[in-house]
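Consider a typical record:
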Amino acid sequence: MILIQPAEVDEVQEIKRVLSDTWIDTYRSFIPLEVIRKITSLWHSPETLAAEIENENVYFDVAKDEDGAIIGLLTASQPSDDIANIGRLYVLPSHLRQGIGLKLLDACIAAFPGVQALRLEVVAQNEKGMAFYHKQGFRELSRKEEEPEGISVMVVEMEKKL
């Protein structure tokens, strides 16, 4: 049984571990490991994650397994009345294809009643992520090149009409 619930500040270290593990699995084929470690240490610092959890304008849910271990997470915000932006959606590699991402997505949609669309950005080389979002009804809006830590990646903006 998977439980979706709001993240707690005392879970920051476990959340950071989930993010590090998923980033390594997702991006190591096209981003060097040392760059992944640098990015995750900066972008997913305990202070940054705690601030997001405590920010009332950030939706931050975690998925927990039957033992209470965090196995996935989703963050989002609502920049306008009709749009919610997903910032992160990650599920541990060992728990993929079990419906956890869909449960996180459904909980996010329920948390933003009245929005007409969900938007997100995903790296084009993230084949698992791209396939998941397409399967969930997201469509590509635009592409742009970004260079996190000097590594060139193509970022795809996607939207799902609700």
